[in-house]
Amino acid sequence: MKTCTFIVCFLLSAIASYAAAPSGSYDEKPADVTAADHLNANPAPFTRCIEAEKSDGDGRISPDPNASDGLTRGFRDALDYYVTYMTEVPQAGKYLITLRYFSEQNAQISVSVNNESLTQVELPSSGSWNIAWKEYTFEVNLRASTNSIRIKELPGYNVRQDKTCWTENGPSDPVEEAPGCDYIVKTNVIDLYPSCGQGIGLNVECGQVNCTGITYKWTGPGLDASGNAVSFYAPTQNGTFNYTRTTSKAGCPDQTSDFKLTITDCSQGSYKACVEAENSGGTGPITEDPNASGGKTRGERNKGDYSVFYSVNDVQVEGPHAITFRYYAEANTAINVHINDEVTPYKIELPSSNSWNITPIEYTLVFALKKGFNVIFVKGIPGFSPVRHDKICIEQMPGTPPSCDFTIKAQPSTSSPECGAQLTLTANCTGPDCAGIFYNWSGANGFARYTQNIEVTAPSVHTTDGYNVAAGKDGCAYKNVLVAFTTTGCQPASQPFSTCLEAENSTSNGPLSTDPNASNGQTRGAENNYNYFVDYQVYSVPNAGSFPVTLRYYAGSNAQVSISVNNVVLIPKLNLAPTYSWNIVAREETFYLTLFEGTNTIRIRGLPGAPLRQDKICIGPNQNISTRMAAPGAPELQTDTPSLQAYPNPAPGEFKAVFHLPIGTSGTMRVTDTQGRVWHERGVKGKGAHEERIILPDAPAGIYLLQVKKPDLLETKKILFIR
């Protein structure tokens, strides 16, 4: 045998080493190499796949022979389960994510990279929950080393996640070379001929396949904003004003589109307006009166707590305005007044007009209004003389408005408290005008306090909870901030949520009475007075959603109640069939309510008519109410028009508005924040039952008002946006 020379042996060894080197994607993070070595090696793009069942998430793991590794994450009818995939990449840059999944219909997911802003992705159907899978690819930016990518199904959709694969998107990728510039964008303007200072909503429509990655910039008088949906106030002087929308996409030339607003109704003097009570929403009946300003009023002589919603449009400047109430009252009385979404009402004492229908009286107060649209909510106080409302008039105060240059920030002592733990919420004011600021807090517990710091108890379930702090100052409008935190360390619910609450153990202004036929031997209510309420405190609701609620009660004849959740009226009037007995035979009535995660307060209040004796309520699927029932059932008498609903609530920026608008009529649907800014507005034509989808991807987390204005009623619903 011949011995090889040193040079020949070295060459043979190098060839053998090259043949044994792996090719294709990296399975592990590559070893450090110099820049020159890396360029010379020219490795294949980084690729890695991660199984859903091996990643963190709150979706159920289930076997599936058709899955890539025999397991998946997800289950039908879950509201919003998620999977968090952790991956390490060799270098920062653009990566393609390919999600393998099952979905019986088209679905939508949100994608969050490293806990940053959400991106919404629509997935085409795989046509099956467990047989045929589908893959969908989208692009994200990743940083070098460790990244977390959370993929979360949106409420109302069902997605069963199998795995994800990550591929480095090199410079030769055709997506980078041809970004797709063939798109057409349409601008939607709520009103091209607005009133003076009116709130204006703008949004865009882009229906082509190349609409991803587009950004929008809006400019013009009083407008400098970005996003596909923005709002601003129209100018407060007459004329024609030009606005521009600039559409941009990486690798494409900018596109511009112009529109004009024409304003003709700005007065030369200060703002003045009057609003009739009979033309406003409310719970009080409309009655004729020849002495009233418009020949009609709102009010009921034997009921003190009905309400009137005055809508005030086109206020030209923010600041103090004189509001004059014209009314009738047979004795000195008092009312509660809410301005917009202020947390705590103003208790206003009113002098008597000494008449119910002959001589009206006027009383003027000063309130801070916002520019644009305002709502003034007036409600009678039980125990005071009833008020018959005629109208209100608003006038801008002369002189220089007070300085309101301050900003409010608020934060919890911890953003992730343990279930049931105590935490502190703190508000702080910054800016030159913080002197004289006061704070009011409200949340699921329905409280409001005149303090800068409050102590709260975290819910005993895993949830994201929110509390609102409203900062006020005399002559300035409230400024609102949402403080959010997420509970941790909670035990998962072992069964569907259900609970029963006794009326006698709940807060109420109704007397407590014994009854051997009641579920626990006691009830609340009085036979000679309908105007009692019971506040049922519901703790530890695991998820926001719609729940069946069953009321057990006694009523000698047909009765009516209103039902509210967390101080928001959800059912203005519910008919209850008689039990034909005050204390012998009980009856049940089931209805549905939208509850928040955590703590909720359900108030059931009697309306004019037969008095009601409340026994208890049960919530959820396992109600187990045992009672002797009278017949016929109450649902046979239920003829009321459904009230305005919104779901899901809390919402991730997209929700559905459900309401009733009679055929042949028209109305307006609007979404505003607590500062009065209009985020969405459009007209609707009556077709009976409506279910309207509203998407606000750029609206930040916080409390919003959904309003549907009908010919004879303004309905309002609070919505909490979480991100």
From TrEMBL:
N-terminal signal peptide: 1-19
Keyword list, A-Z: Signal
Keyword Signal assigned: yes
Region (Disordered) location: 279-300, 505-524
Domain CBM6, residue spans: 499-620
CDD domains noted in UniProt: CBM6-CBM35-CBM36_like
Designated name of the protein: CBM6 domain-containing protein
Species whose genome carries this gene: Dyadobacter arcticus
